[in-house]
Design a protein that fits this description.
This protein is an all-alpha fold. The protein has a domain at 167-266. 48% of the residues lie in helices and 3% in strands. It contains 24 helices and five strands. It has a three-stranded mixed beta sheet, with helices on one face. It has a two-stranded antiparallel sheet with strand order 3-4. Strand 3 (66-68) and strand 4 form a beta hairpin. Helix 17 (343-360) packs parallel to helix 20 and helix 22 packs antiparallel against helix 23. The two termini are 20 Å apart. GO terms for molecular function: oxidoreductase activity.
């Protein structure tokens, strides 16, 4: 039996392969370059006193902490010792509170710096040979942003470091060879090359900066970048989440981790789904004619699509949806498009709908539960408020990122059995705690490895993003105090009770709601 904190990991990823590892430590390169401190419009500091905490923009501190560099046009820190680099974690509650934060503390930031540095230096990206991901950076950054104390950070780390695998050694010859595009691509999808990719990207970020490296290796549009883009949305979007945390909290070392993690994932989902959907859509940036909610409702009425997934499918995406109903899935996914003048609205639309189907996929005769696969779509949504405002990212790439996110949300909904959505179950759920109490319970949960904390923060952030569109778009299903109700559902439904797992998996299937219901990916 796995420890309780590992129970959420007992599923298969997107067809990843097992490899053998050893217990050597990762060889890191030294770093001298700093990272752009980019402040998005949605970055907020949150009071925890009220039911709906007011979010006020943080003061801009560019004049005190940053200066422009000529090579990329990005903001770059120039303080000599207190700065984040490609090999050094440095977080400050003043400049790096996160897109959504609630009383982030400077003493906690110092503790996070020490522990995430240790994690970077000593732990592998996967904690077993089934490619289950190391979530330590996700959890610690999330609870830091939610107001955790240093002792909370230490407790979470002590609980979750016990099952991590040691970092692997890097091979300097392989690292040097990666400057050759063909050699770089030969290492794709191979776990043993994670330390080589990590050291390579650390060196590249040192030399060029985060913006230029992302542009070259993810958004350039050549064969290598296209494969990286595809891989970034694999592995239950964990590479995207890792990269998102690095971007959000201004940590180039975590960006390097995200890129290295991307490189060792498979790209089959991109080849089978994202690229064909993009082609069917007629390219990138077409004006979206249907909301995500409209597409979800049409998908629920499509019998072939609904029946395309079976409980027994080993991989419900590969062996289910994209095996039995690929054209139907592509038809709907290709209709999620975003033009330049729709970015903010489509972001809110995407967040609202994914929170809707995550919260409303319930069974009237059962206790409220949330689906483990669905929450990844919610948790990853928080980063897009920053991604769409990155000054170094061109508009085409921003539109593409948002389109791919909307499409994975549609695919994930269908792959879990296209569950019925019972909004009344959400609307009638009692509000017993405000956001500050929800955050506190998420931080203190003894069995969480970060998924609950990420969810609580993403929900509070989603409320802020969507609030401005409630009157403009009355069809948005999640509005008003429903956000707080869902926050209460999140913490109430994950209370430890015996051997019951925190989450339901593949909520559209009856079997998932049984005590031992453990769905495959």
């Amino acid at each position: 039996m796995l420890p309780r904190v590992l129970q959420c990991h007992k599923h298969h990823w997107f067809g990843s392969k097992s490899t053998t590892t050893n217990n050597s430590r990762l060889l890191l390169l030294n770093s001298t370059r700093c990272y752009s401190s980019l402040r998005p419009p949605f970055q907020t500091a949150v009071s925890s006193a009220s039911t709906f905490p007011p979010a006020l923009p943080l003061p801009r501190l560019a004049a005190q902490h940053n200066s422009y560099t000529s090579n990329t046009g990005n903001l770059s820190r120039v303080t000599s010792s207190k700065m984040a680099t490609a090999t050094k974690i440095y977080l400050s509650s003043v400049t790096d509170p996160g897109i959504y934060s609630s009383r982030a503390r400077e003493d906690t930031a110092r503790t996070v710096n020490e522990i995430l540095q240790e994690d970077l230096d000593t732990h592998h990206v996967f904690f077993n040979d089934q490619h289950f991901h190391n979530h330590i950076p996700h959890q610690l950054l999330s609870i830091y942003a939610l107001g955790a104390a240093p002792e909370d950070i230490k407790a979470c780390y002590e609980r979750n470091k016990t099952y991590q695998r040691p970092a692997l050694p890097a091979n300097q010859d392989v690292i040097q060879s990666m400057h050759d595009v063909a050699k770089f691509q030969e290492c794709f999808g191979k776990e043993e090359h994670y330390p080589n990719y990590l050291a390579f990207f650390q060196h590249e970020i040192d030399a060029k900066g985060v913006g230029e490296v992302l542009g070259e290796y993810v958004f350039a549009g050549d064969e290598r970048a296209e494969s990286m883009m595809c891989r970034m949305f694999g592995g239950l979007i964990h590479p995207l989440i890792q990269l998102g945390f690095g971007i959000e909290f201004n940590q180039p070392a975590i960006v390097a981790q995200g890129l290295a993690q991307t490189a060792v994932h498979d790209d089959w989902l991109g080849r089978a789904f994202f690229l064909p959907a993009e082609k069917m859509a007629g390219g990138i940036g077409k004006s979206g004619q249907k909301s995500t909610l409209q597409l979800i409702n049409e998908m629920r009425a499509d019998k072939a699509l609904v029946q395309s997934v079976q409980w027994s499918d080993s991989n419900k995406i590969m062996d289910g949806v994209l095996h039995r109903a690929p054209e139907q899935m592509l038809k709907y996914a290709s209709q999620f498009t975003v033009s330049e003048d729709q970015v903010e609205e489509r972001l809110a639309d995407m967040i609202n709908t994914v929170v809707y189907y995550t919260s409303a996929a319930q069974r009237p005769t059962r206790e409220m539960r949330l689906d483990f696969f669905f929450i990844h779509c919610v948790n990853s949504s928080v980063f897009f408020s920053k991604i769409i405002n990155l000054p170094f990212l061109n508009q085409r790439s921003k539109l593409r990122m948002l389109e791919w996110k909307g499409r994975i949300d549609l695919l994930m909904y269908t792959s879990r059995g296209t569950p019925d959505l019972l909004l009344d179950e959400v609307a009638n759920y009692p509000i017993k705690e405000d956001w500050s109490q929800i955050f506190a319970r998420s931080i203190a949960h003894p069995g969480d490895d970060g998924h609950l904390a990420k969810l609580a923060r993403a929900l509070a952030h989603g409320q802020k993003v969507c609030q401005a569109y409630e009157s403009k778009n009355p069809e948005m299903p999640i509005k008003g105090d429903m956000w707080l109700r869902i926050g209460n559902i999140a913490v109430d439904s994950t209370v430890e009770e015996g051997d019951r797992p925190m989450w339901v998996r593949s909520t559209g299937f009856d079997e998932a709601w049984e005590p031992q219901g453990r769905a495959h990916m």
